[in-house]
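Hey everyone, long-time lurker, first post.

I ran two proteins through the pipeline my lab uses and got sequence/structure pairs for each. Pasting them in order. The first:
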Amino acid sequence: MKNEKLKKLILCAVFVDLIAAGAFMRIPIPVVPFTLQYLFTMLAGLLLGGRLGGTAVSVYVILGLIGLPIFTQGGGPGYLAQPTFGYLVGFAAGAYLTGKIANQVEKPGYKRLLIANFVGLAVVYAFGMIYYYFVSNYYLNVPIEVWPLFLYCFILAVPGDVLLCFAGAFLSKRLIPILKPERMS
């Protein structure tokens, strides 16, 4: 029991580190940069389960908000005023939901993993785009209409994340038996 708790704690910490590293592995595109954060938040949900995956992402967000420069543009409580902060909240909710869907069965197949990944991706974009719209229009007074929001915050960004959904399903299908050997017995 003690070893299992330690294993979970270590895996959560590893995913916090991977998500932070993923923030700096980026391809600059207008408005919302493409990073590998989504891959690591998705894998947290798939490999740790909904509760622990969501917890790992939430710890990452909290660490960034208290001032560690682990977000793509730094960190600190002022990051709440960044229009892209909603994507970070979406990462936590998406990891939770991805993990819940994928781990409903003992040995998830590619189809279940992909469905979980795409549902999580939809959650990330919903949180991200809604937050972006409201912060830009009502807090920063930098109006953005729905079409430009959809173009810059979805159309330009989603193709890379779709590829990450496939990569996440592929990786998790291979990593689940390693991280959760009891599932294979």
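...and the second, right after it:
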Amino acid sequence: MLEKYIENHKNEIIEKLQGLIKIPSVICASSNPKHPFGEPVNNALEYMLDLGKNMGFKTKNIDGYCGYIEFGEGKELIGIIGHLDVVPEGDDWTYPPFSGTIANNKIYGRGSIDDKGPVISSLFAMKSVMENANVHKRVRLILGLNEENDWKCIEYYKKHEELPTIGFSPDADFPCINSEKAILTLYLKMDYSSFLNQDIVIKDINTYNNAINVVPKLCSTTLSINPNKIAMSDFIKNLKNIIQELNFEIDIYKIDETEVKLTSHGVSSHSAHPELGVNAISHLIITLSKIFSIYQIKIDLFDFFDKFINVNYWGENLEINFEDDSGKLTLNVGDFYFRNNSIQVGLNFRVPVTMNKIVIENSFIEKTSSYSNLDFEILDFKPALYIPKENRLVKTLCDIYNEETNSNLDPLSIGGATYARAFENCVSFGCNFPGCKDMCHQTDEFIDIDNLILSSKIYAKAILALDKLD
């Protein structure tokens, strides 16, 4: 009955997901205290709450920070925790990123797989259970609005609302995720004031609103040179030689005899998988380090970066190469900016579950100590999640997936962070399927329609199974 209900509502599932994708729910500044993450994100929340209410669920807007959709009775609460905010759309999409275009049996759009598709899939799974089965626990779909940034939405929820007794986050991969790496965000900083009278001066830096958890595909800077000391033709020739030698894709635009603009091109991917992308910021910084060196100008931050953070973004040059069952220590260079005479570079680490963050911090203390004009600051740290694969929640969810797909797969470890780590007795569960390319945060993000429907069936069975767990 559950599967039949979902099949019968396939067109509605697709339609409602398209409607949600059309809301460009990127977090933005807001002066409205009722919409702390901006109007577009709030519009996505209202869309979901209206949908849930019309489907017969209990709904609640929690002061604009988050919301939930719920059914059932009982003391215990099954939580399904997803998010409605998305990363910026990026460039060069085949279809408009907020159109929800259907092509090749796929729904294209920013958020289609992260995390709007899984949220809609979960909602209709709840509806199928509500219509066709009796449950003894309440089931609540928690809708976060700040997942792609600093999780203030979930912090607010945990302070003001009931916590689930068991649950999952539909924001990763099947069959089940029992291990999520820790996440550490660190900024390298240097004062640029004393360099403003040099023969080469940085005028601006633009990363085109890249998020720290995205491998940047575009980064540019404008440089000013002293024409009395440096000939523009020689300067451009040296730049071309550096770029050619490094095999980077960086365009050079001569503005006039005193200014030149460099635009670095990369390939976007999720920072949990930096090896799948090409980092435009890293390539630009390395190029800047080398061109400044040619003219005997040492920029501490660039010199440090070129020595220690230029090998596949993995951190081997920092002498903190580390790997355990959850994977390797990875590093994404996700931010680069120049303002108030300060240059800063943001680094996003995905830290294996058995590794202590102190190892990273001590390494930076040691390596930066030889630079007089360089400092660093750890801005954020999210501890790792690890639940043994023998745990009944992990085993139950894996068994459901394997039975539904005729598979025999074990739980996985990921470098990404899901809301599962914010709650006890919770793991991430789908809805990216094994063998499918992970389109999270990428250009032309999509969700396969067959997988969207199949995931809803799996989630419905998961709800029933969790309802039966003591």
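Reply from user beta_strand_b:
Welcome! Quick read of the second one: The mean pLDDT is 94. The longest helix spans residues 449-468.
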